Amino acid sequence: MGLLDFQKQKIIQMDRKIRNASMNVVQSFDQTTYSGTASDYIKEIIIPSLPKVDDIISFTESLYSYLNDVNKVRYIRKFKSYPHRGNIYNEWDRTFTVTDNEPALWFYMECFEEKISDFSSYEENKSFPIAFALKSEEKKYSNDHFRYGKNSRENLFSSSGLKHCHILECAPRGESLEELSIDSRMIRLLSPMNHFPFPSPRKYEMSSDFGEDYIFLNLVKKILYQEYYKTSIQKEKFIEFLEAAGNKIKIINIGQDMLIKFSSKLSNQRLVVKKVKTTKQPTTSVEFGSSNNDHRSIASTILSHYKISEKDYGKGLVIRVKFKRGKYQSSIFEYDHDYTYEKVIDHLKTLSCWEKYSSYYNTSNIPGFAKKYVKNIE
To answer: Would the pTM of this model clear 0.90, i.e. be above it?
Structure first.
């Protein structure tokens, strides 16, 4: 079973609204390997996965209308000079806050829903998050107007092995607010006309991150103009978006194709194991996401503690644990780190240790929230 076949099974278990929105994104990405031209991949895989053209144009026009009011709060991607997500900044004759990629992904997924509102409605109702999670230092500055967190819909997108990419960089390095305006940055961040999905380097082996590659992004721009925006009016709207977003490269000057190749790191097959009741462990049903033996890496030594860590996510680790203290010292446990991470991340985000260190440790026991994803192998 391939990676995306497995993810499609998970989609079926979700409620209908989320399923309909998410299936449109992932169903075109039905292969675990690809080798060929970038232009063919964009035409055959990326374009069929995008929202309806008229929906993203309409939503983008609602951003323009919102920005006509100079007193409205702007939302832009955080960068070095403005690090605190959710803080209200008043500079350059604008009021703005900075975000991570959560609002961009949220609005992209929203464009797959049956009914899409204008941006002002979402902004007034505090519908969208400005961050995945806030650091304790950021919470001192964050305004109550903003919310944060990841919804099931966006969690599904990320766990499906896809990356949410931008044609035009939202916070270009070295460019000040004088060089790329606040309004242009907000359009780049929130307009789905600037977004597309691509396999994530966390889950796929590839020579470079094509979703960040300059030549590849320019090809996406050109082929979308040629193939996705079909009518003359739609093409005009795309050009209007590029200009409003501060784009400096004309589509006519883009022509270079490239070869791309990638393959899945994980098969993400699921194994359900029934444990035998012993004095060590109660009977329970265990759901264990096993990696492909050719690609996974097992910890070189048995750890003396259970851990889940942000920095280890995407490495394909299968971890074994033998506690040095507590009632489970005579047992050895095994778990797929990435699979468990994806299952318990919503809970981890509520813990102070995750907020401070982006990691969780337990030196004497498997935590209750993770037990069903762990095997007792000895």
So the answer is: no
